[in-house]
Amino acid sequence: MATDVHRPVTETVTGPAPEAARVLDGAAVRVRGLGRAFGGRAVIDGLRLDVAPGEFVALLGRSGCGKSTLLRVLAGLDREVEGQVLVPRRKAVAFQAPRLMPWKRVWRNVLLGLPGRPERGLAERALAEVGLGHRADAWPKTLSGGEAQRASLARALVREPDLLLLDEPFGALDALTRIKAQKLVAELWQERGCAVLLVTHDVDEALLLADRALVMENGVIAYENEIDLPRPRDIADPRFADLRAQLLDRLGVEGVHSAVGQ
Amino acid sequence: MTVDQAAPAGAAPPRAERPVAPRTPVSPTAGPRTGPELVPVVPVSAGHRSAPRWLRRAVVPVFLLALWQVLSASGALESDILASPGSIARTAWTLVSDGTLPSAMFVSLQRVAVGLVIGVLAGVLLALASGLSRLGEDLVDPVVQMLRSVPWVGVIPLFIIWLGIGEAPKIALISLGVAFHLYLNVYAGIRGVDAQLVEAGTSLGLGRWGLIRHVVLPGALPGALTGLRYSLATAWLALVFGEQVNADDGLGFLMNQAREFFRTDVIVVCLVVYAALGLLADFIVRTLERLLLQWRPTFTGR
pLDDT tens digits for A31-48? Predict the structure, then answer.
């Protein structure tokens, strides 16, 4: 049942709860009236969000707009919230920093926190999927930035999540490594079919990967845009440039229209 | 125009004394462009050859040793003040061959070992209690921090009154010194674990015990080993202090006995043994670090 794989992050469910159970079929994330304040200042205020199963959603917003806070709430890492938050039981997070345990070899990092006694082969298959099969025995300190980020991705995917939360996972990578990593995420998402919420401030990244781009502003999802471009996507596509201009406009970046138009 | 003059008047007051020298711009009309003067970068190996490093470092100690021997041989340094290196070496050989030194070392090592075990257990358990729980911190930490300001050597008289003059006060003194060092370092190690890693562990589904086992304790290990190294140094120090008090065997007894008879050679031999054992202890901790901390990014032991 759909209710089996969903559990509220918070106990303080407000709003029409009985009605909610019916709408759940066909949702990987359901957020209603979410509020989160830091020291009296509301960072998230009455936010509403739905993500369909298998949908790739990019969450954009200016720095400090609360997009990372929203991701942490969905990940269950921040529970001091108000409102209703329903997320799949099986979810995984990849952070901007890989956050591998430096004292565990890569394969042990991948298996960390899995229930029971998972065998090494499981980690090796997950690592092979991200092209790191040969580094299973390495210490995290010997990995390059891109490799560490891929290991972190393998650690998330080995949990077979219904919802994958990515918090600017490519932010710290160099430009070439970032392109490869984005491609990898696109491939893995198409194979796995899990819902993805990608927090980013790179508009191109959102347009390359996502089905839908959301812009967060004043504590709510202020704007959203379906990205119905065929995949694989091409930055040179004029419709791509169009969408980029719209999104940049929403993000308050002035004077890019002309630059993009040429 | 200089920066000082360009600064807004309301901003930080400019240092008026500074001489304001107008910058002389390089004239673009200086004629045909000539490159800068080139200077060769001389490889280090091409420089003057010097004696190997170890040889240079050995020069002064060897010289001092020779000077010491010469002063002793010429009678300028009497053996009541300080025995000559040669006679110290002979004494060392005698003490080893007649079994005096080995048995004294055995007794002293035993004291250190027992004191160390008790001190390590106490220090680590207290650090875990206060590092892993708020309640433990509130109960344990203030007490330890208060007692820490008491110089531990100063409690020898109390220990003698409480525990007599046998083994107990010596072992208690060693345990006390060890426990404080280990407590402080393990506690700091636990509290210094990267919060981001703890959060990552939580997001991976680790429970409280899983977090302690897979994230907190390994993260505290470098601090614990640093603490162990300090502890061992402290243990030797405590041994020396403890054995000055009414010991009837062990290295300290050997030294006290030698003092009675102005046997400076025996005293120096004992000092050398203390130093050697201290080095050995340090070597053991270094080996432990090499085995247990291979994962550390800063680790350069291999």
Answer: 999 999 998 899 999 999
In a domain, B21, yes or no: no
CATH superfamily placement of domain A2-261: P-loop containing nucleotide triphosphate hydrolases (3.40.50.300)
In this prediction, the answer to ipTM > 0.85 reads no
CATH number at residue B201: 1.10.3720.10
pLDDT digits (tens, 9 = 90+) for A55-69: 999 999 988 889 999
pLDDT in tens, B122-173: 999 999 999 998 999 999 999 999 988 888 888 888 998 999 888 899 999 9
Q: Which residue of chain A comes nearest to B295, CA vs CA?
A: A103
| 3-class SS of residue B62 | helix
For residue A104, which residues of chain B lie inside 8 Å, CB to CB?
Answer: 214, 218, 295
Structural contact between residues A167 and A94, judged by C-beta atoms closer than 8 angstroms: yes
Residue B186 inside a domain? The answer is yes
Residue pair B264/B245 in contact (Cβ under 8 Å)? The answer is no
In-domain check, residue B197: yes
Q: What is the pLDDT of residues B206-218, one digit of tens each?
A: 999 999 999 999 9
Q: Could you identify the residue written with the tokens 């390089």?
A: B26
How far apart CA A220 and CA A66 sit, in angstroms, is 9
pLDDT score for B94: 94
Structurally, chain B folds into a number of domains equal to 1
Domain range for B248 is 105-252
Any domain includes B189: yes
Nearest to B123 by CA among B157, B152, B165: B152
Q: Containing H/E element for A35?
A: strand A29-38
**Distance (Å, rounded) from C-alpha A164 to C-alpha A209?**
14
Distance from CA of B279 to the nearest CA of A (A): 28
Report how far residue A104's alpha carbon sits from residue A97's, in angstroms, rounded to the nearest whole number: 16
Distance from CA of B191 to the nearest CA of A (A): 16
